[in-house]
Every structure is written in structure tokens, then in C-alpha cells.
């Protein structure tokens, strides 16, 4: 852009001394100058920097692993296929097994507490600035005593965050691209997709509809929805969801004991997703930490205790991570970087 004027000019300089010392400013392009004080009217004229129709391109390329993802996230794909089916068979009565949604309003006790807390932040006395990276101590203590009494989990083991899906990806950042991982098959898709994005996997194999370098642990009616661990290849990370989404299967104490032993034998970490634990009505474990020794090899998401049950998806992830590396909680570095 150039600025034509009919009066004496003040040019712009990036030098501070020039800027402060004299009324003399200039920029490298010489295309822009501003009139000195009281210098009168100016007229702006655009100076084209690109040839017509030439789109500007950065030199930054996308994470190549993104190209491995198949048709994006699973649920939009389910919705796309459902629509296509309905278009083809307008009279079909479709039972959707796609993404669910909460249907009940958020209880007033939650919304009023949130309103009260946010109002407090608008007062001089109540304003706190950034909160603790791990979440408020009072909340973490309450979670520990309410859900983990007698399981050896304390407030310091608990991290409160903004949702499980984002935490699954952050965990993958923590693990890095050189780990191997296992998932139940079928399972909630975020485990696999975040692994793909991190570069832990090979390409998608269309013939078998699986990614290379992921250990898929078959969970079907034939094996009672629990993997036959004698056929599972050891991996660094084992994502395990119980009750499982989408099968609804909840693992028994004996099965989880086997899983913990399997992880210990192979030096693996279990990422245990107990998102739907509050829906359980039998006495199968609600937490992996009910299994002796699990604390040494596991971390657990318990976020859905609040979110799924009380209609507040994506509000909280209660992230429980007692694993210690070099005398520090495994999550502390990543968590503190991701949250303020
Ligand atoms: C098993 C499981 N884990 C994690 C999530 C994601 O939870 P959030 O809404 O807290 O991101 C879901 C969401 O449906 C889920 O089904």
C-alpha cells in the first residue's frame, strides 16, 4: 500500500531512537508513510503484491499422518452412510448405531454451582487468575474421597481437564510416535485415530479395514467380549474401555486381574477408560484400581462419571494418573503444558 499526500511527510522507521528522537519514521518498502502532524488529507492506494489469480502458499506442509485417516472421524462417516442409505431406501426404518447424545438437562445443582463460581471470578475478592494446572485441590480431594476411598488414590494423583477426547490425544503426545498400542476391537475410535495422527501406525489396510502396527484385540460374542490375551501381541500401551463403547461389556474382576498381569509381564501401560462406570449395576469393578497392583501399570479416565451421567459431555475429564516416572507424575509435564 502506498500513501500519496500533498503535504510534507513523516516516514516510519523501525528504530526506536529514530521513532522517539525525531519526528522521522520510515519502513523498508518505502511504500508507506504517514503525514506529519497537521499535514492535511492523504489518499491510500493499494499496491498489488501478487500476480492476478496467484494464490499465496505457505511453505508449511500438513502432518503427513493425517492423510492416513480414513474418511475422517468414524461418526461423521456413520452419519454419511446413514443418509445415503435413507436416500436410497426412503422407507427404511434405520436404527442408528452412530454417535449418541445426552438427552437429559444438566441438573440445576451443577449449573447453579458453575454460575456461582463464575460470578465469584467477577469480583475483586474472588478473582483468582489462572487456576492450578492439575485442577482445584478441593475438587481433586473430593474426587479422591468420593470415588477412590480405600483404593490408595489421593488428590495428587488426580488431574481435572476439559474432556476425555482431548486428553486421549494429549496422552498420545506424552507417549510419542515410537510406542506400539493395542485396542479392543471394536472400540471407541479416538484411541486409534489419535494413534494414527501421532504416527504410531502404518497405513490403513483396506482389505482388513485395520491399520498396520496396531494390535486389535478381538472382542466378540465368541470370546465373551474379552480378548484372548494368549493371542495378543505385547504392546507398550493398551487402551481398555470398560464398560466398553460400543459393546457395553463390563470386564469382571478376574478378567481385569489377567489384564493387569499381562501388562506387568510385558512392561505395558494400561489406559483404562471407565467413562460409563456409573451406569453399572453389577459388582464388576468400576475402576481398574480395584485390582491389586494396577496402580503400577495403569492410568484411568473417570470423566464420564460426571459428563455422561449428568448431560455435561465435554465439560470435564477427571484424569487419574498415579504413574510415576523419575519421581514425578507421568502426566505432570504434558498436563501442565496443555493447561493453564
Ligand atoms: C468410551 C468413551 N471415552 C471417551 C469419550 C469422550 O468423552 P468427552 O466427551 O469427555 O471428550 C467418549 C465419548 O462418547 C466415550 O464414549
Automatic annotation (TrEMBL):
Cofactor field: pyridoxal 5'-phosphate
Keyword annotations from UniProtKB, A to Z: Aminotransferase, Pyridoxal phosphate, Transferase
Keyword NAD: no
Sequence ranges assigned to domain Aminotransferase class I/classII large in this UniProt record: 93-284
Top-level taxon: Eukaryota
GO molecular function per UniProt: transaminase activity
Gene3D superfamilies for the chain: Aspartate Aminotransferase, domain 1, Type I PLP-dependent aspartate aminotransferase-like (Major domain)
SUPFAM superfamilies: PLP-dependent transferases
CDD domains the record matches: AAT_like
Biological process per Gene Ontology, one example term: systemic acquired resistance, salicylic acid mediated signaling pathway
Similarity remark: Belongs to the class-I pyridoxal-phosphate-dependent aminotransferase family. LL-diaminopimelate aminotransferase subfamily.
The protein's name: Aminotransferase class I/classII large domain-containing protein
Amino acid at each position: 500500500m502506498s500513501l500519496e499526500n500533498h503535504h510534507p511527510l513523516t516516514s516510519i522507521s523501525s528504530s526506536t531512537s529514530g521513532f522517539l528522537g525525531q519526528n522521522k519514521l520510515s519502513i523498508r518498502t518505502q511504500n508507506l508513510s504517514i503525514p506529519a502532524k497537521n499535514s492535511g488529507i492523504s489518499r491510500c492506494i493499494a499496491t498489488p503484491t501478487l500476480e492476478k489469480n496467484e494464490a499465496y502458499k505457505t511453505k508449511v506442509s500438513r502432518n503427513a499422518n493425517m492423510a492416513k485417516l480414513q474418511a475422517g472421524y468414524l461418526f461423521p462417516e456413520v452419519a454419511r452412510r446413514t443418509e445415503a442409505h435413507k436416500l436410497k431406501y426412503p422407507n427404511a426404518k434405520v436404527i442408528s448405531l452412530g454417535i449418541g447424545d445426552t438427552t437429559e438437562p444438566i441438573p440445576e445443582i451443577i449449573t447453579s454451582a458453575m454460575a456461582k463460581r463464575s460470578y465469584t471470578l467477577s469480583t475483586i475478592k474472588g478473582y483468582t487468575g489462572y487456576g492450578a494446572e492439575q485442577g482445584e485441590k478441593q475438587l481433586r480431594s473430593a474426587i479422591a474421597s468420593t470415588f477412590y476411598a480405600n483404593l490408595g488414590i489421593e488428590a495428587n494423583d488426580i488431574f481435572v481437564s476439559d474432556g476425555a477426547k482431548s486428553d486421549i490425544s494429549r496422552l498420545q503426545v506424552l507417549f510419542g510416535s515410537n510406542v506400539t498400542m493395542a485396542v479392543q476391537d471394536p472400540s471407541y475410535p479416538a484411541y486409534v485415530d489419535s494413534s494414527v495422527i501421532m504416527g504410531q501406525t502404518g497405513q490403513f489396510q483396506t482389505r482388513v479395514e485395520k491399520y498396520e502396527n496396531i494390535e486389535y484385540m478381538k472382542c466378540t460374542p465368541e470370546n465373551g467380549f474379552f480378548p484372548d490375551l494368549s493371542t495378543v501381541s505385547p504392546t507398550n500401551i493398551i487402551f481398555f474401555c470398560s464398560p466398553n463403547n460400543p459393546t457395553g461389556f463390563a470386564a469382571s474382576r478376574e478378567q481385569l486381574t489377567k489384564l493387569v498381569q499381562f501388562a506387568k509381564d510385558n512392561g505395558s501401560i494400561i489406559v483404562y477408560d471407565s467413562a460409563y462406570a456409573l451406569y453399572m449395576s453389577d459388582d464388576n469393578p468400576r475402576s481398574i484400581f480395584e485390582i491389586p497392583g494396577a496402580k503400577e501399570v495403569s492410568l484411568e479416565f473417570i470423566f464420564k462419571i460426571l459428563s455422561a451421567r449428568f448431560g455435561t459431555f465435554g465439560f470435564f475429564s477427571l484424569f487419574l494418573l498415579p504413574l510415576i516416572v523419575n519421581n514425578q507424575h507421568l502426566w505432570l509435564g504434558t498436563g501442565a503444558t496443555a493447561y493453564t
